[in-house]
């Protein structure tokens, strides 16, 4: 089928979707992939290329799986020998680099067979951009890149293996911007940061389409909690600050100090990040402060974290170190439907992101931000200044505090729990946000891009 036959959104078309990860794997990106592709299928046929071994969307989707030849045994062996500094240095831009060649070969085969109108690439990992670019070079098919986080986002990438790697990262970002026909960012801050470094001729390629939420999931009825004796603070997702509290537990040996020095040698730091704030420690201390002031609340305030990926032993040691074992409960990752249910039942929803020690603004925004806003529950956001702060500022029922501000957190928690225990729990009507958050509407923004590019697509009959 020639792409010249598709000149309107109503005409059926084909999309070759390239993503290293794919449903049913559980993470925020695969959930976004699932929701968007399901919406695309109203007008488009989706052919997907992934490395996820059991990749599956639905019966309508042609999912082709190409195994990633990542040399796991060799890399693991080098890591055991404490030589992982060399793997970080020589494997660039990320560990998915080994997948590029087999993905290009399979992608080209799929293009010859199915003649898609658009190549659509989900990133991260950033290596996937090179797959899409190579296939565009080979076929002339328009290329759309969709990022979760920019490679130049210092929240996600505060340091590189060397100054050279930082330069290469910036070159790669410019390269995939200029080689794509359209590029989508989920963060206004990151979009502007990258766009401002491009010539004016490239600016029209940039689009802001945020992550979102599925209203069908959140509109399912969930039983209201009736226990007036407890107050539950819920956080959904992983936290990466556990190890920063775990290090002091064990005495640092001279060998360990030498090893750390070696690992940091030559590393080019762009910004100092306080990963400790990506943990329940600060909000836990805020709860402790409330209990100290009102002992009757002991055992009545609970913090529950769903989505932990850190070793159970480390979690246990950190909680014990800070006397939080009776306040904080940590659970493994759950299916998305369960996450939705827990979010809708919480007394207070909690977001936290790693703090930026220099006070500068960052471009990261947590995916849970949108899902929390789909509920009617109060939200405590302990986030640094930047994209996440700016987006939540002024939203109904949200409190913004710095990630380590225990005093501010305790005041918010006290106000929300006081309302509940007084018989008037705080609830907020956020239906006005549904059009902004719903994947049905977000998908339409992507489809507008695809339709516009299809009008300029080449005839693929000769490929």
Can you walk me through this structure?
It is a single chain. This protein is α/β, with parallel strands linked by helices and 463 residues long. It is 40% helix and 16% strand. Helix 1 (28-40) links the parallel strand 1 and strand 2 (44-50). The longest helix has 17 residues, at 163-179. Mean pLDDT is 89; it is low at 1-10 and 456-460.
Strand content: 15-25%
> Which residue ranges are poorly predicted, with pLDDT under 50 across at least 5 consecutive positions?
1-10, 456-460
Protein structure class: alpha/beta
Mean pLDDT, to the nearest integer, reads 89
First-to-last CA distance: 12 Å
Strand order of the largest sheet: 3-2-1-4-5-7-8
Number of helices: 18
Features:
about 40% helix, six-stranded parallel sheet, about 475 residues, disordered N terminus, seven-stranded parallel sheet, alpha/beta
In a few lines, what is going on in this structure?
Helix content is 40%, strand content 16%.
């Amino acid at each position: 089928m020639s792409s010249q036959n598709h000149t309107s959104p109503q005409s059926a078309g084909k999309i070759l979707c390239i993503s290293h990860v794919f449903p049913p794997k559980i993470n925020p990106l695969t959930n976004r992939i699932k929701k968007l592709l399901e919406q695309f299928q109203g007008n488009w046929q989706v052919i997907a290329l992934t490395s996820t071994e059991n990749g599956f969307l639905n019966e309508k989707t042609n999912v082709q799986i190409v195994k990633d030849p990542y040399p796991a045994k060799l890399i693991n062996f080098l890591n055991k020998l404490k030589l992982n500094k060399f793997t970080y240095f020589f494997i660039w831009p990320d560990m998915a680099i080994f997948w590029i060649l087999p993905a290009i070969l399979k992608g080209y085969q799929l293009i010859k067979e199915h003649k898609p109108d658009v190549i659509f690439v989900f990133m991260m990992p950033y290596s996937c951009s090179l797959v899409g670019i190579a296939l565009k070079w080979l076929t002339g098919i328009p290329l759309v890149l969709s990022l979760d986080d920019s490679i130049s986002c210092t929240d996600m990438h505060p340091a590189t293996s060397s100054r050279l790697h930082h330069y290469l990262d910036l070159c790669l970002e410019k390269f995939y911007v200029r080689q794509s026909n359209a590029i989508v960012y989920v963060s206004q801050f990151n979009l502007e940061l990258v766009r401002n470094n491009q010539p004016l001729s490239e600016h029209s390629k940039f689009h802001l389409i945020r992550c979102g939420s599925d209203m069908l999931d959140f509109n399912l009825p969930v039983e209201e909690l009736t226990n007036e004796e407890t107050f539950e603070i819920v956080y959904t997702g992983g936290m990466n600050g556990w190890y920063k509290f775990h290090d002091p537990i064990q005495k640092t040996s001279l060998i360990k100090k030498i090893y750390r020095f070696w690992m940091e040698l030559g590393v080019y730091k762009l910004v100092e990040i306080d990963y400790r704030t990506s943990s329940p420690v600060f909000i836990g201390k805020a709860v402790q402060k409330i209990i100290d002031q009102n002992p009757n609340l002991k055992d009545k305030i609970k913090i529950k974290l769903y989505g932990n990926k850190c070793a159970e032993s480390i979690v246990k040691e950190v909680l014990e170190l800070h006397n939080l074992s009776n306040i904080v409960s940590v659970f493994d990752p759950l299916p998305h439907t369960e996450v939705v249910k827990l979010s809708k039942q919480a007394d207070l929803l909690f977001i936290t992101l790693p703090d930026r020690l220099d006070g500068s603004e960052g471009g990261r925004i947590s995916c849970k931000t949108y899902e929390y806003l789909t509920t009617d529950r109060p939200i405590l956001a302990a986030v640094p200044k930047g994209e996440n702060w700016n987006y939540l500022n002024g939203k109904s029922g949200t409190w913004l505090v710095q990630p380590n501000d225990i005093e501010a957190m305790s005041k918010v928690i006290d106000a929300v729990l006081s309302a509940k225990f007084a018989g008037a729990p705080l609830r907020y009507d956020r239906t006005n946000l549904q059009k902004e958050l719903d994947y049905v509407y977000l998908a339409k923004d992507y489809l507008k891009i695809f339709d516009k590019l299809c009008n300029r697509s080449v005839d693929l009959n000769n490929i």
